[in-house]
Amino acid sequence: MNAGTDAGPGLAALRALYPALDAEIDGRRLVYLDSACTALKPERVAERLADFYARWGGCGGKRSTHRLSQQVEEWFQDARRAAAEFVRADGPNEIVFTSGTTEAANLIARAFPYEPFRREVVITDLEHNAVALPFLEAARRGEIDLKVCLTDEGRVDLDRLSSLITEKTALLALTHASNVMGGVTPAAEAAKIARRKGARVFIDDAQYLGSHREDASTLGADFIAFSGHKIGGPFGIGVLWGREQELNRLNHYKVGGGTIKSLSWEVGAGAPEPRYLDAPMRFEAGVQDFGGAVGLHEALKVRAELPDAALREHVAGLVRRTAAGLAGVAEVKVLGRPDDLEKGSLVSFVPVHPEFSPVDFNLYLNHELPGRFVAIRVGEHCAHLLHRRLDAGATVRASFGPYNTEAEADLFVDAVKSYAKEACGG
Ligand SMILES: Cc1ncc(COP(=O)(O)O)c(C=O)c1O
Questions:
Q1: Partners of 173 in the beta sheet?
Q2: Beta carbon of 100 within 6 Å of any ligand 1 atom
Q3: Among 99, 176, 227, 289, which residue carries the largest CB count within 10 Å?
Q4: How do residues 262-281 score in pLDDT, each as one tens digit?
């Protein structure tokens, strides 16, 4: 990859891995600026999945012992090791496969061992519904007390956060990168504050890992979650990372096949008593998404071929360019502070002119640009707390992946300008 520029073989070769980039939609070439919703999938991932299902597809999890099952189980554990390496975990036992970040957050909200005198959970107004709602529901069930830390233009004020975290705080749940405001949050500093007060820390890495690497062993969190589909893997597979000791402290979330060591039962002598396995197996109930794990592993291999620093620099450059281009458009206001934005991978804005309609603009991008179909996202982005806070009905978001080009960022900026001129008469 050739960081920061469209020239050179790096970016062209990378783009060639993604057939969707050659796709035509209604006769228009796709310009994909929606990687925050889901990243495009490399062809290799699709091929790996097709081969897995067509030629293997036995059940893993040490169920059957024939060759098909043994191979699938081996690949499943290879994927676990690759995921552990991706987040620089201390070992594969720290990796629990989930269906995604949403399931990981639900697992933590449900299974966390809150104590009578330590049952507060602190979140921020940046949290995606995937994280906000499981804790909101726990509060509604009366299991926890929920506190929401307000942010300023997407920035987490550590003093404010610190004043909300007390000796009654069980858990801090914080996104590492907002899916609306862009930028990144000071997750390591926040984790330090929380742990100093005896609270545990859950970090939502769903957006962060698109162009950053995480280092679970030094971050200072107890739990991290991410979704495979946001880094080029299949839908329906994700990871909850946790320190082994912390995972084994959690209560049950789902139980079923594959989670127990033994079950003792004397007919007629009370209820049967299961003895559960340690993490990660005790959380992986039922037949797992073995294909998903294999596909995720392939996506991680593709990712491993991209140098981390060059990937970051490339995406930061696209964000900088887009934010700078939009700064001069009077009809819209870019969210977040310019210095913060380039640390993330997306740019969002709200219209400030009454005639600039996000929904109409979305249609314009799909149907009115000669030869191009630009895919972005418009709406509340499952971040309802933040949208109430911003008092915004809908925000417009362009988000970038490794495969995007400067020309695509410029095309988007030009489209905002031309739409604004047409709709607002600017
Ligand atoms: C910040 C953030 N957290 C969590 C999620 C939920 O991820 P998933 O739907 O893959 O579980 C998303 C999805 O957009 C997100 O952006």
A1: 202
A2: yes
A3: 227
A4: 999 998 889 999 999 999 99
